[in-house]
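A note from the maintainers: we've had questions about how concatenated examples are separated. There is no special marker in the raw files; a new sequence line simply starts the next protein. For clarity in this README we add a label.
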Amino acid sequence: MKILVLGGTGSLGRLIVSQGLELEFGIRVLVRDAEKFQLEHHCLEVMPGNALDAAAVERALVGCDAVIYALGSRQSGFFADTTRILIAAMEKAGVRRLVAITGIGAGDSKGHGGWIYDWIVYPLFTKKIYANKDVQEQLIRASKLDWIIVRPAAFTNGPLGGRLRALDQLEGVTISSISRADAAAFALDQLTSDQWLKKTPLVGY
């Protein structure tokens, strides 16, 4: 299986790439500056390009079987804009599996991150970002793709192997954190599992 990873230079994306290579997936990353991506592996292909450039995304999809979207940005409208381009390119190329990582605070996951996140972090720091991620999720839901939207809790730098929970029935649920390593592993698992197909699991501890 060959995977296109968008956001492969980020703190989460790098773990997705490294863990994916350990699983012997073919990995292609689309990066604005290929020289800054130092990881080398015989199953890794680094392709220069911008996720806001439709032609670059179309080129990056050639020969791929699935996409993991792990982009991060504070640029206004970025998540919706890049997702709109990606969906069109995937539908054109016939690539159906999309694992999109948004986060706690998107959709009905609002209010389930614990007191500090829900009452301080979200309203003061991430509310505008998640308004755009809500649009992103709506675009994905409306697509013809085989999508899974992964909503990780607040990230830590902890190790792989925590006692992970994944839930989409959230009444009375609080999930306060997840290591980036566990979030990366969960996202990779969704490439070959239909358990959460066309669902939006909130994941963490």
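[label: protein 2]
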Amino acid sequence: MDRRTLLVGLGVFLLIGIVAIATLLFGSPVKFRGTTYEQPYPVAPDFVLTRGNGSSFTLSTMRGRVVLLFFGYTSCPDVCPTTLAELNQALGKLKQSDADRVQVLFVTVDPERDTPERVQEYVDHFNRNFIGLSGAESDVAKVWNDYGVFREIVEGTSAAGYLVNHTARVTMIDQEGNMRASFGFETPVDDIVHDLKIVLKEAN
């Protein structure tokens, strides 16, 4: 064996050793199943909206909890009820102590019809711990803009009136207020649970 081959072999062996030690010390890289945000993680834009009881809600008061943020409306025929039902299922797959550290927020994209009271009554059908939020259109529109939410009124012929096309993604915000991952419509519930457990474990 010549000297060059020996050096290459030793270099590879050393690299393998470093990786093995790093894995033992820091653990294997954790992979999310949702769409992830790259480091440095973007801080979730703060906002103030109105709850069903008329009080103000500020996102930053959720620090210390994992937030699942979803935008929708109470007259939605399919996407919104499906998503809220799946988020409720996801919480049900967690230990109660972990589920208590997760807060689902539902922000309306239809403030003209969705009063704060109506939004809260709507989310209560799925889980009474979910928080529904609305407010003046100018206030809610700023939140849509900050989170890149597309929203479009579509005139309908049904008894429910017009429909609202909107972005249908759930944003996961960690305990420090950072945006960590998002989940598209009909993401498997087990994938959401998997990613929640990762973020919840980080705070232990």
